[in-house]
């Protein structure tokens, strides 16, 4: 959606190896862009 670069690793790799890290990264990105991830969809 935001066309973010997948660096230094692919998103699938991050979620497969460390799901908590991937979800934390997504949460922070949404918060920084003004969304409230705690509200859900």
Entry summary:
The protein is mostly helical.
Distance between the termini: 15 Å
How many helices? The count is 2
What is the total tally of β strands?
0
Structural class: mainly alpha
Major beta sheet summary: none
Mean pLDDT: 79
N-to-C SSE series? HH
Proportion of β residues? under 5%
Name the helicity range. 40-55%
Low-confidence stretches: none
* Shape field: globular
Give Rg in angstroms: 11 Å
Strand and helix map with partners:
Elements: H1 11-17, H2 19-32
Helix pairs in contact: 1-2
Write a structural description.
51% of the residues lie in helices and 0% in strands. The chain is an all-alpha fold. It has a domain at 8-33. The longest helix is centred in the middle third of the chain and has 14 residues, at 19-32.
Using brief descriptors, characterize the structure shown.
41 residues; mainly alpha; 2 helices; 51% helix; globular
């Amino acid at each position: 959606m935001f066309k973010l670069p997948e660096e230094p690793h692919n998103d699938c790799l991050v979620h497969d190896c460390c799901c908590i890290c991937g979800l934390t990264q997504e949460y922070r990105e949404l918060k920084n862009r003004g969304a409230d991830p705690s509200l859900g969809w």
